[in-house]
Amino acid sequence: MSTTTTEPRRSGLMRVMRVAAVPLLLACVVGGVLMVAGVGGEQLLWDVGSHLLALCGLLFIALLWGGVYLEVVEASRGMPGLRSVGEPVMTPEVAAELRALERSLAGLGFRHDGWFSLDDFGETHVSAWQHESHPAAAFLLHLPGSGMFRLRFVRRFASGGILVSSTRLIDLAVPPPKGVYVQMRKGASANELWAWHLEGEALFPDATSPAPGDTVASGPRELYVAVSARWARHKRRDRTWLLAVEPFGECWRMYHLCGMPLQRQFELGWATPFWQ
After folding, report:
1. In angstroms, rounded to a whole number, what is the distance separating the alpha carbons of residues 56 and 53?
2. Which residues pair with 120 in a beta bridge?
3. Of 92, 94, 110, 130, which has the fewest CB atoms closer than 10 Å, so is most exposed?
4. In what helix (H) or strand (E) does residue 234 lie, and over which residues does it extend?
5. Cα gap 219→217, rounded to integer Å
6. Three-state SS for 110?
């Protein structure tokens, strides 16, 4: 089965969930207004507002939970909702930030390989980049409507190991599958993150071994899908994974691992070299 497609086979359920978020938020606001109006002694308004607010709050939580479930399930199947897109519409300020990042990546030897969109809750747009002489790819992640970009460098080794260096804090939230390693440096420039990434690559025993599996010959998009699918399948091995979400544990991981290089993760036991 193909791991990716450029056809717009977007999940109808995910589309409905995205649309439903707006009326649910509006209903929460209405419930809050009714509760405020009932403070003066109108018990009926207070009761209607409180019940409406509680119901919409529960439905909104269920909506977010369902979105996470669909994203993981789709990723484990090879992300069939992925599609080719053009550059998203941005404000001049955001576009200027993008151009600066693009110049930095080009200066590091990367070439642009197009945009694609994910069928996730935020419809993330990804700008893919392939290094011209090094077996690594770069990805700029952008959430439409936001003014931020998140940068990732990814390399897959012939031994099966994968190194991800990122500026996206949430990438640290859960332990990755065996053989996948993540180091995150918040606010790092492209040059700083790339230098950090190369330091992490040097820890892998086959970092300098030229081998067919040590390239991104199929392209950065396919690498993105492969890594996402591997992560999602690892998570889905536990059938109760959605019930085992630990927000406090995730925050604890992000707090401790933010800015920690891979070598230090090995020393402190946060990660174990899969080749040992």
Report:
1. 5
2. none
3. 92
4. helix 220-236
5. 5
6. strand
- Same-domain pairing of 27 and 145: no
C-alpha to C-alpha distance for 149 and 102, rounded to whole angstroms: 11
Handedness of CA 58, 59, 62, 63 (dihedral sign): negative
Structure pTM?
A: 0.78
pLDDT tens sequence across 135-177: 999 999 998 878 889 999 999 998 889 999 999 999 998 889 9
Q: For residue range 66-112, list pLDDT tens digits in order.
A: 777 777 777 777 777 788 899 998 999 999 999 999 999 999 999 99
What b-and-e string marks burial along 110-138, b requiring 16 or more CB atoms within 10 Å of the CB? beebbbbbbbbbebbbbbbbbbeebbbbb
Residue with tokens 């199947």: 77
Residue 251 identity (one-letter amino acid) = C
Do residues 63 and 17 touch, judged by C-beta distance below 8 A?
A: yes
Backbone angles phi and psi of 4, in degrees to 5 = -155, 160
Which two tokens mark 211? 């081998």
**The domain containing residue 99 runs over which residues?**
83-268
Angle of helix 12-37 relative to helix 43-76, nearest 10 degrees, comes to 160
Beta strand extents in 31-88 (DSSP E only): 83-85
57 and 187 in a single domain? The answer is no
d(CA 49, CA 36) in angstroms, rounded, equals 8
